[in-house]
Design goal:
Helices cover 38% and strands 10% of the residues. It is of the alpha+beta class. The radius of gyration is 12 Å and the shape is globular.
């Protein structure tokens, strides 16, 4: 997660970021693994949590950014 926190927001490239645990299409209250995180600035993170459906319509599901983030931090598999 520390490496993810060093990146810019995957939506707008702003800094600083909050490390977001992906939630799209999840119906459980359990938090996902720390390996399923993406960097989001405060505004993008707030937008996602305030209206998940609208955020997804605009940006796609949050988990689609996981492979991009893994590649950026050198952990693509």
């Amino acid at each position: 997660m520390a490496k993810v926190a060093e990146l810019g927001c995957v939506i707008c490239s702003r800094h600083p970021v909050e490390v977001h645990h992906c939630i799209c299409d999840r119906y459980s209250q359990r938090k996902v693994s720390d390996t399923e995180t993406i960097p989001l600035c405060y505004l993008c993170h707030s937008d996602l949590h305030s209206n998940k459906a609208a955020w997804r319509d605009k940006n796609g599901p949050d988990y689609d950014f996981i492979p991009i983030v893994r590649k950026l931090i050198g952990e693509d598999t």
